[in-house]
Amino acid sequence: MRLVRVWPRLGREWATSPGNLKTTPPPSRFSLPLRYKGLVSVTPVSVYGMTSARTLRKVACFAALSLALAVSSRRLFSSPAEEKRISVYSLVANYSLPVVERDGQDYTGLLEALEPLGNVSATTEGSHWRLRYNNQRADFTAGSNRGDVGRTNFDLHGDFLLENGRGLVPLSTLGPLLERILGGPVTFHEASRRVFIGSVEVHFTAQISPGIAHSLVMNFTSPVNPRISTEPGKLQMLFSHEPVVAPGSMSLTFDDKVIPSASYAEQNGTAELTVNGNVPLFATFSNGNHTITISPAPLAAGQAPAPASGSAPSAGAAAPSAVPPPVAAAPAAPPAPVQFFAVVDASHGGAERGEALTDQLAEKDVTLAFGRALRGELEARGIHTLMLRDGDATMGLDQRASLANVASPAIYICLHASSQGHGVRIYTALLPLGGSDVGPFLSWDTAQSPFLSLSEAVASSLALELETKQVPVRVLLAPQRPLNNITAAAIAVEVAPPGTGIADLNSPAYQHLVAESVATGVLSVRSKLEVGR
User: Fold this and answer.
1) Is residue 408 part of a domain?
2) At 197, is the secondary structure helix, strand, or coil?
3) The domain spanning residue 461 has which CATH number?
4) Is the Cα dihedral 511, 513, 514, 520 positive or negative?
5) In what order do the strands lie in the sheet with 270-276?
6) Do 397 and 480 share a domain, yes or no?
7) 8 A C-beta contact, residue 493 and residue 505
8) 328 lies in some domain
9) Do residue 416 and residue 391 come from a single domain?
10) Which of 111, 143, 339, 428 is most buried, with most CB under 10 Å away?
11) Which of 265, 243, 246, 272 is nearest to 93 (CA)?
C-alpha cells in the first residue's frame, strides 16, 4: 500500500516512506477550499496518521457533496438581478419595456415602443425590416448601423438587430428615433432610461407647512400614486408609472429639525423621492392625490414613551407595588391638508438669470429675496403662503402655472425686478383673443378670464397701500405669462429702485417696505378673495 501525506493544499501530495512519518507527522486537521464560479466552500476534514488512496476518494466525495449543497443554497436564496427596464410616458399611455443586452450594448424593441401610441405594423423580408407608424415609414437592415425614416437617412449609433422577426434598436438612439418617427418633441433621460413624449412631465413643490408643525407638503401637477416604503431615518416614494421629474435640484433642504432634507434620484425607468427625518415618518394623500403630506408617524398603540435620560431609579429606590396595565393610545388623526391662500412666484431662477441689474446683481436673486420677505409678511398676517421657487432652480412658465393651479390659492403673486424707472409697477393679464373653453375645461391661454375683475380689485388695493407708504406705483395691463394661465386672482409686481441707486433693489429695508405694503393690500381684500375662490 502506498502511503501519502496530505497537506493543507488542495490537489498536492508528497510520497513518503513509513520511516519519515515519525519525524514529520501529518497535520491532524486541514480544510479543503473548493471554488465554483466565485463561491468558496471550506470543508474541514480530519486526518489521523496515514491516509490511503481509498480514504482520499471518500474525502473527495464528501467535499464534492458539500460543494453541491453550497451551490444549491446559493441558487435558492440569492435574489435574481434586477431586470433592466425603460419607461415611456405620453399623453396616450405610460408603459415600460424590457431592455436586452447584446455585445455589451443595450437594445429595445422599436415596434413595442410604438404599439401603445398608434397604428403600427412591421414586416420582414430576409434581412430587411420595414415598420409603418400611421403615415410614417421606416426601413432597417440587420447588421447595419443606419436606417431610413421617411426620406431621411438615420444613424443608429449601433447595429440594427433582427431576432425572430423582432426589430431591436440601440437604446441610446431611441429618443431621437422616436422623435423622427412621431414628428414631435421627445426628451430622453438615457442614464435612467426614461422617455418623455411631449410635455407630460409631472412637476412638484416641497415646503414645510406653516400651519402644521414638522409637516412637509408636496404638491404635484398631476395625481400620483407612488409605492411608499420606510426605514429608520427616511421615507421613500418610488414613482414607477408617473413622469415625475426633478424640481430643479436633486437635493432639497428645509429649515426644520424633524424633516431636514429630501433628495430626488432616477434609475431603471423610475423616479424616487427620499425624505429624511429624525423620527419615523408617514405619508397622507389629499387633493385627489395631487398633494402628499409627510409628517411624524403617531406612536403605535400601547407603546410607552422612552424614559428621559438620567431618570433611571437609583439602586436603593423602592420598586412600585404594582404596574398598571398598558393603555392603548388612540391613533393620532392624520394632519389635514394645508390650504394655501396665496402663492408667491419669484420669477426666473437657475440658468435663467433674468435682467442683469448690475454686473453683480441678477434679477433672479432680487426676486427670491423679495419673495421670502413677502411670504414672511403674509404669514405674519395669518395668510398661509406657498412659495413656488425657494431656491436657485429653473422653472418653466407652464410649470409655474400648473403648480399654482394645483395649489388652488385665492391669489397668485408673480414677482419681477427692473432697473428701469422708479417704484413699483403692478400688472394684470392682457388676455389674447380667440380663447375657447370646452365645457368645464378652460382654454389654457385665457384661463384667467373668469378672475380678471378680481385681479384688478387686488391690484387697486395694493396700489392704494403703496401710495400710502409714498412708494411710486402704476397699475398696467400686460400680456405677461403665466398670468393668463392662472385660475385664480393673479397679479405681477415689478419692483424698480426707489431712487437713482440700482443697488437699493437689494436693500432689506426697501424690500421690507414693499413687501409690507403688498401684504397689507392683500389682507384688505381678503374677504373678496374668499368669495371668489
Assistant:
1) yes
2) strand
3) 3.40.630.40
4) positive
5) 227-231, 234-239, 270-276, 261-267, 251-253
6) yes
7) no
8) no
9) yes
10) 428
11) 243
Grid cell, residue 505, equals 433693489
Residue 72 has pLDDT above 70, yes or no: no
SS3 of 54, please? helix
Burial label, 115 (beta-carbon count in 10 A; 0-12, 13-18, 19+): middle
Rounded Cα distance between 506 and 15, Å, is 92
Backbone φ/ψ region at 271: left (φ over 0), alpha (ψ -120 to 50), beta: beta
Alpha-helix runs per DSSP H in 437-507: 452-468
What are the Cα distances from residue 139, in Å, to 132, 145, 531?
Answer: 9, 12, 61
Average pLDDT over residues 40-62: 48
φ, ψ dihedrals at 70, nearest 5°: -65, -45
Rounded CA-CA distance 414/56 in Å is 86
In the chain, what is the straight-line distance between the N-terminal and C-terminal CA atoms, in Å?
Answer: 103
Residue 162 is part of a domain; what is its CATH number?
Answer: 3.30.457.10
Q: CA separation (Å) from 368 to 150, 260, 266, 348, 417? A: 48, 21, 28, 9, 10
Is 400 contained in some domain?
yes
Query: Rounded to an integer, what distance in angstroms lies between the CA atom of residue 386 and that of residue 178?
Result: 38
Rounded Cα–Cα distance for residues 321 and 327 (Å): 18
Number of domains in the chain: 4
Q: Is 197 or 327 the better-scoring residue by pLDDT?
A: 197
Q: What would the pLDDT profile of 81-92 be if each residue is shown by its tens digit? A: 678 999 999 988
Q: Are the C-beta atoms of 88 and 113 separated by less than 8 Å?
A: yes
Answer yes or no: do 258 and 286 share one domain: yes
Reported pTM: 0.58
Strand partners, 41: 34
Last residue of a domain, one of 26, 50, 77: 77
Is 94 in the same domain as 151? yes
CATH number of the domain bearing residue 265? 2.60.40.3470
Indicate whether 49 pLDDT > 50.
Answer: no
Q: Measure the CA–CA gap between 251 and 232, rounded to whole angstroms.
A: 19
The Cα–Cα gap between 187 and 246 comes to 14
DSSP for 471-484, please give it.
Answer: --EEEEEE--TTGG
More confident call, 67 vs 10: 67
* Domain range for 44: 4-77
Q: Are residues 372 and 521 in the same domain?
A: yes
CB 292 within 8 A of CB 241: no
In 461-474, which positions are buried (b, 16+ CB within 10 angstroms) versus exposed (e)? Answer: bbbebbeeeebebe
Q: Which of 20, 43, 77 marks a domain boundary?
A: 77
| Tally of residues, the chain | 533
**Alpha helices of 89-198 — where are they, by DSSP H?**
110-114, 174-182
Instruction: Give start and end residues of each alpha helix (H) in 396-446.
Output: 397-407
Same domain? 250 vs 370: no
Backbone angles phi, psi at 205, to 5 degrees: -120, 155
